[in-house]
Design a protein that fits this description.
531 residues, 14 helices, six-stranded antiparallel beta sheet, alpha+beta, disordered N terminus, disordered C terminus
């Protein structure tokens, strides 16, 4: 608007000079007299033509009659585009909230004032948001004649609100992830065994990264392959064993992602012509690579998610996967250390078999199980004959060699349900689950024969043959407690010693001698079996 209203008369105003004060601002030319109705109309015209809010005037049936320049600037529509049409039908589009559109229709139908936020579309198809206010207008008689609608552009504000909402949701998701990670860490560090740890890993990884199938590989003892320790997700089967050279992460010594870079190559252990995105994250504990965490996003490309959204999700899962790999590595190291410390506390360091502490605990468990199942339980108590002579005649190294030989024979010749232990000194015990006295006697005979047939070398000379004396006690016939069974087996052992050594006797049983092949330079060996 150029400031000149057609039909108005030139009116000039003069103001008296004031002493030292600011003169009143000069009045624009061609304005109506102050306070007049014409002046009010003049200012209303100024506001309508130069205001920033779009204005549209419709009749009582919502047919457009007039729009202001701000409306055209906001929407791209001219008056001839809307004349006689409902503005909402022209401006609303595919993503306009249907509930909001219905509110507008209801308010105009009932001639009610309404204020709401609604998404509209420009003539070119660009979406924008407005703060819409619809006011019904009545004449002096109270008859409804028009609607005046104002549209204030709030697109920028809505964009900021959307960004804030995305940030809030992202922060809420991170908070949930932190809580899940904290819970996962607690469970990981509470695992007492590898089996428990793998169970926690499967459950935690499926919860933390549900989009991915996963597998955890652990180096074999020889470190030439990695064995599948745990897997989760919908993947039918992962490769049960992979070589270190099959994985880029293991070859390069750092985490590797496929599907996020312009130049990349799939690992050999991931099969298929077009592999989906996947992560290979080394499990490193105390500076040593002990395994590999493999996460595979099968079907991720077919979810309909926009590319930039997929990339955002993958970046988030990459960071989360790195944290999980670190937590798992610490947990594996913790379980291994705990197992090593426990193993040291229950194994005899010289012979490598169980020690007295383990035996007493295992004996109590076996007796409780025996009382429930009613199966036989036997003890074989063994003592190396004339052990002091090995130490006195050949030195303590020779004595240690004899004890190690006994431990090796026990490990090699016992079935899985029989556990060898060193009680102390030259005394050994075998805990035989599900074994009666006859089976225990036969097993003791095989052990004694295997020992006496060995030739031990020390300082380039052969040691005398190693023979043992033994006593057998079976629950519940010879006792129902650990102390009672040990006492019965010990009495049988002393009976074997008193009867000439190199023999096995059963507790409180009349025995008959069963000859065994004699070893040159040794005493006659005899194994005793209950009559």
């Amino acid at each position: 608007m150029d400031g000149h209203t057609p039909g108005s008369q030139d009116t000039s105003h003069t103001y008296p000079e004031s002493d030292g004060t600011e003169p009143p601002p000069p009045q624009p030319r061609n304005t109506p007299p102050p306070g007049s109705e014409a002046e009010q109309h003049f200012f209303a015209q100024l506001a309508l033509h130069h205001g920033g809010d779009g204005v549209v005037v419709t009749d009582s049936l919502r047919r457009t009659l007039w729009i202001n320049p701000a409306f055209s600037a906001l929407t791209g529509y001219q008056l001839e585009d809307l004349l006689g049409k409902d503005p909402g039908e022209v401006l609303q589009g595919r993503d306009t909230d249907p509930d909001t559109a219905e509110r507008i229709r209801e308010a105009t139908h009932h001639r009610q004032e309404l204020r709401c936020e609604v998404q509209n579309y420009t003539r070119s198809g660009t979406a924008y948001w407005v703060d819409l206010r619809i006011v019904p207008v009545h004449d002096d008689t109270g008859r409804h004649t028009h609607y005046v609608s104002t549209l204030r552009d709030i697109t920028e504000r809505k964009s900021l609100e959307d960004q804030n909402e995305e940030m809030r949701q992202a922060e809420a998701m991170r908070q949930d992830e932190r809580q899940l990670l904290a819970q996962t860490s607690e469970w990981l560090y509470s695992a007492r065994s590898s089996d428990e740890l793998m169970m926690v890993v499967r459950r935690a990884m499926h919860t933390l990264i549900p989009e991915a199938d996963g597998a955890l590989y652990v180096y074999a003892t020889a470190r030439d392959t990695l064995d599948l320790a745990a897997s989760w997700g919908s993947m039918p089967a992962f490769t049960p064993r992979i070589a270190p050279d099959d994985c880029w992460a293991l070859r390069r010594g750092r985490a590797y992602s496929y599907g996020m870079k312009a130049i990349e190559f799939p690992c050999d252990h991931v099969h298929g012509d077009a592999p989906p995105p996947f992560f290979c994250l080394p499990i490193i504990a105390h500076g040593e690579t002990i395994g590999l965490l493999h996460l595979r996003f099968d079907g991720f490309e077919e979810t309909g998610m926009l590319r930039h959204m997929r990339e955002g999700v993958l970046r988030n899962r990459w960071e989360l996967g790195l944290i999980c790999a670190e937590q798992i590595s610490l947990a594996i190291a913790n379980v291994r250390l705990r197992h090593e410390l426990h193993d040291r506390s229950v194994r005899d360091p010289l012979t490598g078999i169980w020690n007295r502490r383990w035996f007493l605990d295992a004996m109590q468990r076996a007796l409780r199980r025996n009382s429930t199942t009613g199966n036989a339980l036997s003890l074989i108590l063994l003592d190396v004959d004339h052990f002091k002579r090995f130490n006195d005649d050949h030195g303590h190294d020779a004595g240690d060699l004899v004890l190690q030989a006994v431990g090796e024979v026990l490990r090699d010749h016992l079935p899985e349900h029989c556990q060898p232990c060193r009680l102390g000194g030259e005394e050994f015990v075998i805990l035989c689950n599900d074994t009666d006295a006859d089976a225990a006697a036969a097993l003791a005979a095989r052990i004694a024969t295997a020992l006496s047939s060995q030739t031990l070398q020390h300082d380039r000379s052969a040691l005398p043959p190693v023979t043992v004396s033994g006593g057998i006690a079976t629950a519940p016939h010879h006792g129902q407690t650990a102390e009672g069974l040990l006492r019965a087996a010990d009495q049988a052992l002393y009976a074997a010693k008193n009867n000439g050594r190199n023999r096995i006797e059963c507790a409180r049983t009349q025995v008959e001698q069963i000859a065994t092949p004699a070893t040159p330079g040794s005493q006659n060996q005899s194994i005793q079996k209950g009559a």
